[in-house]
Amino acid sequence: TLKHYKVPKIEDMPSLGLPIENAKRAAAYLAVDENLDIFHHRIIGVGSGSTVIYVAERLGQYLKDEKFRDYVSQFICIATGFQSKQLIMDSGLQYGIIEQHPVIDIVFDGADEVDPNLQLIKGGGACLFQEKLISTSAKTFIVVADSSKRAPSKLGSHWRKGVPIEVVPPAYVRVRNDLLTKVNAKTAVLREGGKAKAGPIVTDNSNFIIDADFGEIEDPKTLYKEIKLMVGVVEAGIFVDNAAKAYFGNADGSVEILD
Ligand code: 5RP
């Protein structure tokens, strides 16, 4: 259930003048401020997308603060893809790999859609495999998003682009057919890049993405299992059971928290 509604006290929150950026920043800052245990956490997951930029920004601010510097400089930050690796390094934080740090204290990541039971659709940025790996390796998984990501009821009611599914390239036609015939996808489209449609998007793991639209999803857990069993599927962008809280920012700097 949606429990709290509060305006964060963020003295150093600059206004970009862009309402959507203010919303994302408010969610990210409050999520970090409320959940990061600077003195005890050490391995931090940094997800992907445009909201997580502000998570890295906030961590960078803590790093510069002399009260926290000694602790934050010891953090090892684990990325969910190329973009978040850049964010970590640009913020001056230490970068580490999950192979060396398989247990993560806390991860902050974005979402494309969040239902009232904290079930998520993710993968709008094509990073879903590493996002799944890192979020399921974390003791605490915190979602940061603007309030447009909140689905009032069922997943699929809101994010109209479908469920992102990462597939091994030679299997994409087979998986697309299986999605249409075995699990009743309305559409299953190979994600292509850029305006010029210069061929398929290639993930950080050298795979393709299929976006499959199911309309409103009645049972995300069952659908997830069915998709995962298809030959050629690496991961599906349905996340159930592991998000602890979601922070939804509004343009006025207020934040709704779902836990
Ligand atoms: C990338 C993701 C992102 O976290 C998701 O697309 C949300 O991004 P944004 O914060 O830009 O709305 O799942 O694969």
Quick rundown:
The protein is α/β, with parallel strands linked by helices. The chain is built from seven helices and 15 strands.
Describe the structure.
With 259 residues, this protein is of the alpha/beta class. It contains seven helices and 15 strands. Helix 1 crosses helix 2. Ribulose-5-phosphate binds next to helix 5.
Gyration radius (Cα, Å) is: 18 Å
The low-pLDDT segments are 1-5
Biggest sheet details = 8 strands, mixed
- Total helix count? 7
Relative strand content: 25-35%
Strand order of the biggest β-sheet: 1-15-14-8-5-2-3-4
Structural class: alpha/beta
Query: How many beta-strand runs?
Result: 15
Helix content: 25-40%
Anisotropy-based shape? globular
Mean pLDDT value: 92
Oligomer: single chain
Each distinct ligand: ribulose-5-phosphate
How do the SSEs run, as a string of H and E? EHEHHEHEEEEHEEHEEHEEEE
Catalytic activity: aldehydo-D-ribose 5-phosphate = D-ribulose 5-phosphate
GO molecular function: ribose-5-phosphate isomerase activity
Protein name: Ribose-5-phosphate isomerase
Pathway: Carbohydrate degradation; pentose phosphate pathway; D-ribose 5-phosphate from D-ribulose 5-phosphate (non-oxidative stage): step 1/1
Give structural attributes.
259 residues, alpha/beta, eight-stranded mixed beta sheet, four-stranded antiparallel beta sheet, globular, binds ribulose-5-phosphate, Ribose-5-phosphate isomerase, EC 5.3.1.6, isomerase, ribose-5-phosphate isomerase activity
